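Dear Dr. K.,

Following up on our conversation at the group meeting, I've run the structure prediction for Glycosyltransferase 2-like domain-containing protein from Orrella marina. I'm pasting the input sequence below exactly as I used it, so you can double-check it against your construct before we proceed with anything downstream. Let me know if the numbering doesn't match what you have in your notebook.
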Amino acid sequence: MASLPLKFSGSMSRWFLVDAVVDGRDDDLILFLRVVSRDGAEFRLGLPVTLKGRVREVIHAPFRPVALFLEPAQEGASPTLVRHRVRGLSAARAYLLMGLRVWHYWKRMTPSDRQRLNLRWPGMMLRLEHSNNLVGRLRYHYPDLGYQEWIDRCESVTPDSLVRLSRMSLPADFAIHVVVGQSRASLGMGSVDARTWSESDFAVQVQITQSSLHRVTGGDRIALSFLDGNQPDTNSFDQPGCSGGEQWICFCQPGIQFEPWMLAWFAYDASLSRYNLVYSDHDVIDASGVRSQPCFKPDWSPELATVTGYMGQAFWIKAGLWRKLSRETQSGSAYSIFMSAARLTTTEKVGHIPAILWHARKESGDGYARPGVQEVQEQISLGATAASVTSDCRGHLRVRYKVPEPEPMVSIIIPTRNLLNMLQPCVESVLARTTWPNYEVIVVDNQSDCADTLAYMQTLRTRDRVRVLSYDHPFNFAAIQNYAVKESKGELICLLNNDTEVITPEWLDEMAGRLSQPDVGIVGARLLYGDGRLQHAGDVLGAGGCASHLHGPIAGDDPGYMNRAVLPQDLSAVTAACLLVRKSLYEEIGGFDADNLPVAFNDVDFCLRVRQAGYRVVYTPYAELFHYESVSRGSDNNPEKQARALREAQYMRRTWPEVIANDPFYNPNLNQGRADLRLGRVRNVLPPWER
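The predicted structure tokens came back this morning:
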């Protein structure tokens, strides 16, 4: 591992300023500072680094250092130290610099952000070192937190939260019922029994399906009922002791351990009333109480849930929806119950609590409601599109959707300006490898002046399936796409960059199959860099900027967090480097926004408008292509391009502030500095009694 020595400027003290510029790629810029004393003692701390590699950090060492080293956090990383200066500070100067940085961040935060981070005036200035470290972790690059460190620093419910909760009066009557499915062992009730409230208007009925009858009382505040038989008595859910509030049923498999404040979350979170079905995040706990394997989940993604059961083995369902399930379903698996209930309600009625409300026992697995092939087949057989279930090369379940017959025509639109070295491999890979029988290729020439490129396009005019259109106007990616769609003959439109190459011969079969689902509006593909690293597995808004690719560059064989790089799922957006959409929907939505987003973010904006119209945007890993990102457009490296890029980003922030603040498919407990799905560095989710 590279270790970069830093030189002192002048005499050193326990307070000093590290001012440096570091060059590298992605993980090269995740750095630690190692501080060494005269007697050989050492300590390491994470360094905040900006997107462009700038380090400017006030350090308070426990001893006077004699040597300093920058060290990358990741194995194999190789940062380059461009320039640096390290100088000692007086305590007064150090506090002034920290105060200025904290103030700079604080004044730009919203009131809710200040509350979430516990940055309150003037208390934040009285705990200046803590506040400075906190805002430093908001920088783009910062070393990963271990899970125990995340629990200590960032979990929603803190010891102070529980103190505050104990002093509060509960809201109006509220009822929740626990049903344990397929039970052959008793539910550990310690976590439920420990909930003691001084108010008598809080009623909890717990129903356990098992072979013997027991009754445990929690005073006049909590009633725990263990009922005979294999079916819970749903009529008793409306008994007088539990009326007056929301009628929720909590379904769980044996062995689930709830957090002591699970009931309070439901009692105080008024936003849950708009849902009929709710799941939460979870993790795994061992016999000694050590927690691991946090599952910080996206909001409701039918595509991901179908093959993984990621919603888990504990969830909450309104009593009215529970009664609509058949007796057979009620006694089935967590997967069957949840998926059947989700089909009986609407997508917007399935809610997600981004907090860990329960733990799965380590000896019982990871807590997923993992389905078998037959369970998945039963669920998709209820849908409008015929499909079959198989296993993919990684061992995950895969749904193959049957495409309509005869196959609709796909118009593959490839804009270009010169760049024969990109265009020719792209077009030839489409023509040589694509198994989809009914398609046309439309190459849109945007003022090419390279003789070789023009000659190649002339030969394309003589090829079957290929048309060449001329767009003789200044470069406007959105306008080019709109023009080509208007001229296309296909029922389906595939937007494809000229810097891509087909890998998977059945790429269009896969994308068209998923698009055949009536509620799916857009399908995006899995894209790799030329060196095999993952370039695109969907887009996320907000984390790391306006919009960016999910995961960040990771190895091509890395499955990603929760296997999300290699599993189909719903997302807010996918890139138009390879995107499939119905022509009728493209025209209905109004196409790309050529006025406000001529170059960047037009695909993201289009996806968001499609979702706004009630359709889903889906990523599939089973359509795979190479993508040499933005080769044809180039980088935004001159003042004019930078001004245009700034205008486009500002437009996106004005138009989609809610999604940018909270992308539904990127859990707020994950890193908000960049969309890499690593653990977050600050507390991002407040419990409902603190909001």
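Two things stood out to me. The chain is about 25% helix and 25% strand. Confidence is low (pLDDT under 50) at residues 183-230, 239-244.

Best regards,
J.T.
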